[in-house]
Amino acid sequence: MKVLIVGSGGREHAIAYSVAKSERVSEIYCAPGNAGIAEYAQCVEIGAMEFEKLVTFATEKEIDLCIVGMDDPLVGGLVDEMEKAGIRTFGPRKNAAILEGSKAFSKNLMKKYHIPTAAYENFTDPEKALVYLETAKFPIVLKADGLALGKGVLICQNLEEAKEGVKTIMLDKKFGTAGNEMVIEEFMTGREVSVLSFVDGKTIKTMTSAQDHKRAGDGDTGLNTGGMGTFSPSPFYTKEVEAFCEKYIYQPTVDAMAAEGRPFKGVIFFGLMLTAEGPKVLEYNARFGDPEAQVVLPRMKNDMIDVIEACIDGTLNKLELQFEDNAAVCVVLASDGYPVKYEKGFPIEGLEKFKGQDGYYCFHAGTKKENGKIVTNGGRVLGVTAKGKDLKEARANAYKATEWIQFDNKYMRQDIGKAIDEA
Fold first, then answer.
1. Collapsing DSSP states into helix, strand and coil, what is residue 103?
2. What cofactors does the UniProt entry give for this protein (predicted)?
3. Which residues lie below 8 Å from residue 127, measured CB to CB, with a gap of 6+?
4. In the prediction, which pLDDT does 392 show?
5. Residue 421 binned pLDDT confidence (cut-offs 50, 70, 90)
6. Hey, which of 19, 150, 233, 362 has its CA 20 to 30 A from 298?
7. Whole-number average pLDDT of the chain
């Protein structure tokens, strides 16, 4: 098979790694890709939002399967465009990708179908939002409705911060049109867990659990980022939690989307909060998490192509997902100053040390090749992932492997997976 992957980050590198393991695949292309993905795929200089060019390329190359990794092209309707051209494509159509594309939509869906989530209100008028906040309980959470690279969520400790948050999202438009509508919701406390799942429109099969670290600094301080590291599985995701989520969250979400005339095929990422009252949905994403994919996919035993085709064909019920009985930890190496301001273009040393190292991976997020050398090209540069027999061993292995890599202004959190030690 000829496969085209759309995207350029660590998630797409993890997808490319999984696809390359399949004996059913002969050629892999990635648009636009990065320096790490180039090891498995031929990178093509077409942006993820250049739909017409992507469709033309896929048609000319007679691509058998297109995998859309990123949220923007999914929400924008790339799957629909590819399907119109007769190209089998993995990911939700535009009318289903709204599950991530609009937080107001997903909150309303959960309310309508009694899926547990935080209490909330939606606002399109900043003045009304400010009036609502006058009598609200703090802390409180403000969310830009649309896509904001994982950064459009503000946790406000008091009324003053909340007023400033409304200004940031709705008036200053820090997150662009994503802030045209805003969700204000109750602040939930508990452990966060990420559960990725494959969906074929009717059947849902969950992958192994994971936990992300969103904040830029140690101890969950600093600004929200796209994710500074993750571990899998989560020791807090017990059999009891899983059983509750299957009954009240996972299948009900798939059924709700079908009932709304928006059947979902692809990956649903459930961001969960394990509260004192039970698990609740923090957010939905309509694709693999980044960096969650970097710890979940290396542990998956199935042939990625088999699973993807089952999702497209509606035969997921005939397939059993299998994961290794071990653990994985990913530590993101970022450019110092991320997510605000940082320099790029620094040469990266030590990448070759991962070659032939079983259980160690270096997923590229923001890299490019320049004059024959791989250099930094983003805020999040690399995702250093390692397996171990348990989480503590995987964590020690991942941090050991971060020392193999050197580049100017390298920054990472030192406490990824520290919650493991407290479990």
1. helix
2. Mn(2+); Mg(2+)
3. none
4. 94
5. low
6. 150
7. 96
Report how far residue 360's alpha carbon sits from residue 358's, in angstroms, rounded to the nearest whole number.
Answer: 6
Sign of CA dihedral 61, 63, 69, 72: positive
Are the C-beta atoms of residues 304 and 319 closer than 8 Å to each other? Answer: no
Asked whether residue 149 carries a pLDDT value surpassing 80, the answer given is no
Among 200, 279, 203, smallest CA distance to 245 is for 279
Domain spanning 119-186: CATH superfamily: ATP-grasp fold, A domain (3.30.1490.20)
Residue whose entry in the numeric block shows the structure tokens 């580049």: 407
CATH 3.90.600.10 boundaries in the chain:
327-422
Helix, strand and coil in the chain, % to nearest 5: 35, 30, 35
Task: Outline which parts of the chain fall under CATH 3.30.470.20.
Answer: 191-318
| Model pLDDT, residue 224 | 83
Cβ atoms of 25 and 85 within 8 Å: the answer is no
Q: What is the CATH number of domain 327-422?
A: 3.90.600.10
| pLDDT at residue number 420 | 73
Q: Give the 3-state secondary structure of residue 305.
A: helix
Q: Is 191-318 assigned to CATH 3.30.470.20?
A: yes
CATH code linked to domain 2-95: 3.40.50.20
pLDDT of residue 296: 98
Per-residue pLDDT tens over the stretch 312-371? 999 999 999 999 999 999 999 999 999 999 999 999 999 999 998 999 999 999 999 999
pLDDT band with cut points at 50, 70 and 90 for residue 148: confident
User: What are the strands, taking DSSP E only, across 302-397?
Assistant: 327-335, 360-364, 367-370, 373-376, 380-388
Residue type, 284: Y
Separation of alpha carbons 82 and 254, rounded Å: 23
Q: What are phi and psi for residue 167, nearest 5 degrees?
A: -60, -50
